[in-house]
Amino acid sequence: LVAVPTDTVYGVACLAQDSAAVRSIYSLKGRNGAKPLAICLGDVERLYRYCHVNVPDELLRDLLPGPVTLVLERSEELNKDLNPFTSLVGVRIPDHPFMRDLARACPGPLALTSANISSQGSTLTVQEFQDLWPQLSLVIDGGPIGDIQSPECRLGSTVVDLSVSGKFSIIRPGCALTPTVEILKKKYGLVPESS
């Protein structure tokens, strides 16, 4: 398990295809086993290997890389032990050069979640999750992320479900809600799932 800076908050990452590492993330965070983990990739092209995509490639590229998690139908390539209770998976491509290089250097996707105990606030400096350090193999200090004084900076990525053709639903508003919804509605004509 490695603590990493992203474009939104500090995260904890491991190889998504390594079932023992995935279990370790849940244990580290005290996370409910029914809460899914996102995967992190370095490039949009790699997304097609792990997900069934039913939106235009241009839409993916308008939102990624960026502070958005896109929830799509998972493919058979993804580790069965990662989120075994759902056919969907959230995908992150952080707009952060180090994270993209790290993801590109790994043979498969990274499982990625925020560096904090579940139900506690997201972290913007490595000092804020010092209590987790002893259980991590490595802590990468990328300096403070965003404005530490601003509560909006701790919201994490905007999580949007695109698994139903022509529709979207916001799972977590996050830090990029307005621009994300604008792109989905205005440019691509998607409608909110509830309507």
UniProtKB/TrEMBL annotation:
One cellular-component annotation, GO: plasma membrane
Record keyword Ligase present: no
Keyword Membrane: yes
UniProt membrane topology term: Peripheral membrane protein
Biological processes per GO annotation: regulation of translational fidelity
Catalyzed chemical reaction(s): L-threonine + hydrogencarbonate + ATP = L-threonylcarbamoyladenylate + diphosphate + H2O
NCBIfam families: L-threonylcarbamoyladenylate synthase
Family affiliation: Belongs to the SUA5 family.
PANTHER family, per database record: SUA5, THREONYLCARBAMOYL-AMP SYNTHASE
Entry protein name: Threonylcarbamoyl-AMP synthase
Source species of the chain: Sterrhoptilus dennistouni
Gene: Yrdc_0
